[in-house]
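Case study.
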Amino acid sequence: MTADEDVLRELRRLPALQPDEVWADRVRARCRAAIARRHLQFERSKRAPFSVRALESALVGGLGLIYLSAIINDVLRLYGIG
Amino acid sequence: MTCMDRDSELALVARLRAGDSAAFDVVYEEFNARLFNFLARLSRRRDIAEDLLEETWLRLVGQTAALHSDTRLGPWLFTVARNLYVSYRRSRLMEDSSAGGFIALWAFGRPQPSPFEATAASEAERRVEAVLGTLPVAYREALLLVGIEGLRPAEAAAVCRITPEAMRQRLSRARALMAQRLDNMSAPRLAALREVMT
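After joint prediction, the assembly is written out as follows.
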């Protein structure tokens, strides 16, 4: 047996370390809650009628346009163009 | 160490992508202890390992919908865990050379062997843990991923973001260095034993 194999054998013999059980349960519960929340949001967004989703998109797009035009206006004013 | 077959893994990934929390439980059972071992032996601190592991799971939960259908869960999770450790280390400039705290890593309440076995085993285990703790992080993570967690060298290379050839070289150097340090540690004990026998 080579020294390399000895090293691997010794490593595999190391005892398995265990995380604290209370901690592990808390983390699992937190993750499960997060998954459930995301799933619920996904389902809700799927259930929302097309008109609501279109309105949401239009609203976000509109606000973005207003913001962008305000920036352009300020820049033009800054350079004395507007 | 258990390894799920590829079909089960693909099915689990599909269920995770669909937001199935029962699938998450299966993945958690399969990998939680393995990831904890990896992070605890990498960081040499239980509290840091737990913090990083919690973050690893939250990353998975946050990205379930974005997982590729052919994702390999083991390498994915070990990559995230390893990256979090690297970030942690960078941010804290953690002193990595101390191996004194390794006993604190061991769990309480595992089955107790006879006193002689316990002495012999713990002596050997402490020796290996101590030497493992003195290795550079790059060598330690290579040995942990391949030697203990059973990842293929190519998978470990992807986790560490190096080429498979570089991983093979790193593994070879890590094993040689560890063997040399184990020998160095054993030599004074053998000399003392010979002295007693003569």
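Observations recorded in class. Chain B touches chain A at residues 19-21, 24-25, 28, 32-33, 36-37, 40-41, 46, 49-50, 53-54, 57-58, 60-62, 64-65, 105-107, 110, 124-125, 128-129, 132, 143, 147-148, 172, 175-176, 178-179, 182 (CB under 8 Å). The helical segments of chain B are 6-17, 21-43, 46-62, 73-92, 115-134, 137-148, 153-159, 164-197. We will return to this complex in the next lecture.
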